[in-house]
Structure formats: C-alpha cells, structure tokens
C-alpha cells in the first residue's frame, strides 16, 4: 500500500513514520509514505497557496490550482497505476470509525489531503475528492494530525504489521465491541487483585470471561454498539451474567 499526504507541513506528518508500529511497517516496506507539499506546485510569489475568500470574511482559503496539481502528481505516481482514493480530512466529513479504516486499508493508493486556514476551495472538493472524513466534532488547525491518526490506524490493520495477527482483531470496535480489560504483573496492587480466572490456566474460561467483560463494558459505555450488534444466545447470557455480577457487587 502507498499513502501520499498532501500537506503544507510535511515535517510534522513525517513524525508518524519515525516511531513504533508505523515506523517498523515503513522500514519493512509493508507500506510506503509520500509527502507532497502543495507549495511546490505554486506559481505565485513566495510559493503562496492561499488567497482571501470570495464574499469577504475572516481567514484565507487554500487555492484550487496547487492542490489539484499535487493530486494529479500523486495519481500519476500511483504504484502499478492502481486506482487512487483521495480523502479530504475535514470536520465536515463523516465521522471516522474502524470500518472506514479497514476500508482504507484495502486501497492500494490513498491520498490524504490536509487543509489549513479556513479550508480549501470547494471546487477542489467537488472535482478531486472521493471521500471526506472527520476525526470528530471539533475543529483542528489543520488536517495533519487527522492524517497521522488515519495512517497509524490503517497501518496496524495491514497483514503482517502487528506481531500477533489476532492482536488487531481483538481490539475495540473490530468485533463491534469494546476490548476486555487487560492486566499484567504484579498480581496485586494496593489491594486490587488480578481476576483469579486469568491466572487459572483454563483457556476456555479465560476466553469466556473476556467475552463477558467485553460485552459488559460495551453495554455500559457504548450501548449504541450493543444495539447495532446482533448478540448470539451465548453472548446474551454472558451479558446477563455480567449485569447480575455488577448488581450483586454494589
Ligand atoms: C481550521 S480548519 C477549517 C475549518 C472549517 N472552516 C470548518 O469550520 O469546517 C482547517 C483544516 O483542518 C482540518 N480539520 C479541522 N478539523 C478537523 C476534524 N475534526 N477532522 C479532520 N480534519 C479536520 C481540515 O483539513 C481543515 O481544512
């Protein structure tokens, strides 16, 4: 997979490639990252890429021409001339979730477009952008942090990136549930003990306990996810068990 990021701050985005899971995936060439600065496509003095908004008002707007040229260049360099998906990170886009991230991971070539200032000329969105996605209902100063979030989330879903293939599938949202709670040594901290089942060595019981916790947590914290998910008979029973345990511990 190849990801191009169109950004006025390539140095900021390149930080994502220097650490951890994404850094290793780039070193192993499971994924490659291109950083494209629209200023390189400007023919204005001082490589300007913004101008005042038509109709007046505060702030500046990123212009169509340099962004369009940058996207065209990215398309032309698509590895194996694979279809390119152009994604604009924008507070006005659809809210990002794990399903969208998995879908991005299926693209051979993804272009992430980062806005700045008041945003980008709407005609670029109409002409060149395939999808608009948002991190959430708040406004960032630029799309770079959103692009870094997207890159990190995609890369950890790619085959071979995480040491244990199961690891990503057990994460929150993959099965429509939040993850179960995790514990590590020591067994006791300030009177708080590791649940005994986890040190019982009974793998079937551990699996059962983990699913019960995942169901219970999701029910308490994200009931919307439980509503969306068709619970099996066993899951329904585990959830009831979880709730009964909760009320008896109060
Ligand atoms: C200051 S914002 C522009 C906000 C725009 N005037 C609006 O209110 O919709 C500048 C850039 O930051 C990025 N951005 C801001 N908030 C975002 C969010 N929640 N998710 C993804 N990108 C965001 C977008 O690329 C946007 O073009």
Write the layout of secondary structure elements.
Layout: E1 2-6, H1 10-14, H2 20-27, E2 32-36, E3 50-51, E4 61-62, H3 64-76, E5 84-95, H4 98-105, E6 109-114, H5 122-128, E7 131-134, H6 144-155, H7 165-169, E8 188-189, E9 192-193, H8 203-221, H9 223-228, H10 233-249
Helix pairs in contact: 3-5, 4-6, 8-10
The structure holds S-adenosylmethionine (SAM).
The site of S-adenosylmethionine has 19 residues, from strand 5.
Q: What attributes characterize this protein structure?
A:
Trp Operon Repressor, Chain A, alpha/beta, 10 helices, Alpha/beta knot, 2 domains
Describe this structure in words.
By secondary structure, this protein is of the alpha/beta class. It folds into two domains: 162 residues, SPOUT methyltransferase, trefoil knot domain (Alpha/beta knot, 3-Layer(aba) Sandwich); 80 residues, Trp Operon Repressor, Chain A, CATH 1.10.1270.20. Helices cover 40% and strands 16% of the residues. It has ten helices and nine strands. Bound molecules: S-adenosylmethionine. S-adenosylmethionine binds next to strand 5.
Offer a concise description of the structure:
The chain is built from ten helices and nine strands.
- The quaternary structure here is single chain
Strand order of the largest sheet: 2-1-6-5-7
Q: Which band does the percent of strand residues land in? A: 15-25%
Structural class: alpha/beta
* Elements, N to C (H/E): EHHEEEHEHEHEHHEEHHH
Reported for the largest beta sheet, the result is: 5 strands, parallel
The end-to-end distance, rounded to whole angstroms, is: 50 Å
């Amino acid at each position: 997979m190849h990801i191009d990021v169109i950004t006025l701050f390539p140095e900021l985005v390149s930080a994502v490639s220097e650490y951890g899971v994404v850094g290793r995936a780039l070193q192993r060439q499971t994924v490659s990252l291109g950083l494209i600065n629209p200023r390189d496509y400007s023919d204005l003095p001082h490589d300007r890429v913004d101008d005042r908004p038509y109709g007046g008002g505060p702030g500046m707007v990123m212009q169509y021409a340099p962004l369009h040229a940058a996207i065209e260049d990215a398309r032309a360099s698509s590895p194996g001339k694979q279809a390119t998906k152009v994604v604009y990170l924008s507070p006005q886009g659809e809210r990002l979730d794990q399903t969208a991230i998995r879908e991005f991971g299926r693209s051979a070539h993804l272009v992430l477009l980062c806005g700045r200032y008041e945003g980008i000329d709407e005609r670029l969105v109409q002409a060149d952008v395939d999808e608009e996605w948002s991190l959430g209902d708040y406004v960032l100063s630029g799309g770079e942090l959103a692009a870094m979030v997207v890159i990190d989330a995609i890369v950890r879903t790619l085959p071979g990136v995480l040491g244990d293939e199961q690891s990503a599938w057990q994460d929150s949202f993959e099965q429509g549930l939040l993850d179960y709670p995790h514990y590590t040594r020591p067994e006791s901290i300030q009177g708080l003990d590791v649940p005994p089942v986890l040190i019982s060595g009974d793998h079937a019981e551990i699996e059962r306990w983990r699913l019960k916790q995942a169901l219970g947590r999701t029910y308490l914290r994200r009931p919307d996810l439980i509503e969306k998910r068709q619970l099996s008979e066993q899951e329904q029973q585990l959830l009831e068990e979880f709730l009964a345990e909760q009320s008896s511990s109060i």
